[in-house]
């Protein structure tokens, strides 16, 4: 048990004991648990989280990377406060959903129509279904190390070793139409798909949970060509990369177009969200007035296009639209990746720093990290130890996950990351 952490987080320990009785593992999402117990957050503002014991943390986890403007940015809060007075949930058509859809169409290449969901998981599920409806094919393909949420057909091959089921309760039937592909290896992709009829290939342009590994541009271009030749839709899961890599996400950043693009996180401006979008020709399959059963592809949900989420999302995208904030974050990301590498190398520790734009991730290994297998071969215990040491000293990352930047991070916040990393590297 890390003593410093235990002595600073006594109230969190008590809350964890209480939480364990009513929430499995004492949390609402397994990845939020870490040894010996997670701290419990009391409030958050800007770049900081504050726990129930009054400790302050510079937050590089940012609500699963969702909070590109930091916690409770004033412009978003103001807009939300105004909207709260007009109702929190309509369950009818309303203008805000049109406005946010128009904003997405304006910013995202190849997006002509949009549908909103409540999570990235749902958006991926509906995008995959739409790809099947549109192409008339059943199979889908995803990448080793790719995380698209807990939807059964995509919940495979996330963690190494890739042949062990990710969860109990996933049936063979649910996964029989899913083909697993190696990341950043076009030749092998072509081999594995040679005799297959595939509705869609879904890819995270930067593997998030899989280690912050960017797809190589040539690889994405190759996938695009392969999909064109085989009447297969290319789906970019931009739940992390959307509105972060560039105002138009990975499509703009890497210059490769997807047929369908999936969003989440940043799009909700701090509220729950997901979305999928694409050309009219494909998206119109969701319109039952044009495509009667069985051609119609269903999508829906009670809280879809919730007016609070739409308001927060719109306020957020408006701030990101001209690209200037994103450019600054990308430059800072570059600096962080470079400096973290230098700090560890100067202290004779073998590490690789991955990530792109404002995402960064450390792996304790000599080996170049180009796919998720290399991430799992790296010393993950050491990564958890590094992050726990940072947590003890007021810098928050989830133990084995990547860090992200927000516009609320100050120079002092970044300097603290460097100085605490330096201290860790010196003593280990
Ligand atoms: C790339 C990616 N896709 C999909 C998801 C699932 O989104 P959600 O957790 O909103 O269901 C995540 C969540 O972390 C993600 O990182």
Nearest-angstrom radius of gyration?
A: 21 Å
What is the number of helical segments per DSSP (H or I, 4+ residues)? 16
**Bound molecule kinds, no repeats:** pyridoxal-5'-phosphate
What is the total tally of β strands? Answer: 16
Q: Per CATH, what is the topology of the largest domain? A: Aspartate Aminotransferase, domain 2
Could you estimate the helical fraction of the residues in percent? Answer: 25-40%
CATH class of the largest domain: Alpha Beta
Q: What summary fits the major beta sheet?
A: 7 strands, mixed
CA-CA gap between termini? 17 Å
Structural class based on helices, strands and sheet pairing: alpha/beta
Count of individual domains: 2
How is the largest sheet built, in terms of strand order?
A: 4-12-11-10-7-5-6
Strand content: 5-15%
Looking at this structure, what is the CATH superfamily of the largest domain?
Answer: Type I PLP-dependent aspartate aminotransferase-like (Major domain)
Q: Indicate the low-confidence ranges by residue numbers.
A: none
How is the topology of this model organized?
Elements: H1 3-8, H2 10-22, E1 41-45, E2 48-51, E3 56-59, H3 62-65, H4 74-84, H5 95-107, E4 113-117, H6 120-135, E5 139-143, H7 172-175, E6 178-181, H8 186-192, E7 198-203, E8 206-207, E9 213-214, H9 217-230, E10 233-237, H10 249-254, E11 260-263, E12 274-278, H11 280-283, H12 307-320, H13 324-346, E13 352-354, E14 359-363, H14 372-377, H15 380-392, E15 395-396, E16 403-404, H16 411-427
Parallel strand pairs: 3-15, 5-6, 5-7, 7-10, 10-11
Antiparallel strand pairs: 1-2, 2-3, 4-12, 8-9, 11-12, 13-14, 14-16
Helix pairs in contact: 4-12, 5-12, 13-16
The structure holds pyridoxal-5'-phosphate (PLP).
Pyridoxal-5'-phosphate (PLP) binds at residues 64, 119-121, 124, 147-149, 204, 208-209, 237, 239-240, 264, 274.
């Amino acid at each position: 048990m890390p003593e410093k952490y235990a002595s600073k987080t006594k109230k969190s320990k008590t809350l964890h004991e209480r939480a364990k009785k009513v929430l499995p593992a004492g949390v609402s999402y397994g990845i939020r648990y870490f040894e010996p117990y997670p701290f419990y957050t009391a409030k958050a503002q800007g770049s900081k989280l504050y726990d129930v014991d009054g400790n302050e943390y510079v937050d590089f986890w940012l609500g699963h990377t969702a909070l590109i403007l930091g916690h409770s940015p004033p412009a978003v809060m103001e807009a939300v406060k105004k909207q709260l007075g007009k109702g929190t949930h309509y369950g009818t058509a309303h203008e805000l959903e049109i406005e946010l859809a128009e904003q997405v169409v304006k910013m995202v290449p190849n997006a002509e129509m949009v549908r909103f969901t409540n999570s990235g998981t749902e958006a991926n599920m509906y995008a995959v279904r739409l790809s099947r409806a549109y192409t008339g094919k059943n199979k889908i393909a995803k990448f080793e190390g790719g995380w698209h949420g807990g939807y059964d057909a995509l919940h495979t091959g996330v963690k190494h070793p890739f042949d062990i089921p990710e969860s109990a309760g996933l049936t063979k039937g649910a996964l029989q139409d899913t083909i697993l592909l190696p990341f950043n290896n076009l030749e092998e992709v072509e081999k594995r798909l040679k005799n297959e009829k595939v509705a869609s290939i879904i890819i995270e342009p930067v593997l998030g949970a899989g280690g912050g590994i960017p797809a190589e541009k040539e690889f994405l271009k190759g996938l695009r060509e392969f999909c064109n030749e085989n009447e297969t839709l290319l789906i970019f899961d931009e739940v992390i990369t959307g509105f972060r890599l560039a105002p138009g996400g990975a499509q703009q950043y890497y210059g490769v177009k997807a047929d369908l693009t999936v969003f989440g996180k940043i799009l909700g401006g701090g509220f729950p969200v997901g979305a999928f979008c694409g050309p009219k020709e494909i998206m119109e399959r969701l319109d039952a007035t044009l495509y009667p059963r069985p051609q119609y592809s269903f999508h829906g949900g009670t809280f879809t296009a919730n007016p609070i989420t739409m308001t927060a999302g719109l306020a957020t995208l408006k701030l990101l639209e001209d690209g200037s904030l994103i450019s600054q974050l990308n430059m800072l990301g570059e600096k962080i990746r470079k400096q973290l590498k230098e700090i560890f190398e100067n202290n004779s520790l073998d590490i690789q720093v991955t990530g792109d734009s404002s995402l960064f991730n450390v792996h304790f290994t000599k080996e170049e990290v180009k796919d998720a297998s290399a991430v799992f071969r790296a010393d993950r215990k050491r990564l958890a130890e590094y992050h726990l040491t940072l947590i003890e000293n007021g810098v928050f990352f989830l133990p084995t996950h990547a860090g992200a930047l927000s516009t609320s991070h100050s120079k002092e916040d970044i300097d603290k990351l460097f100085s605490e990393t330096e201290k860790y590297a010196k003593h280990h």
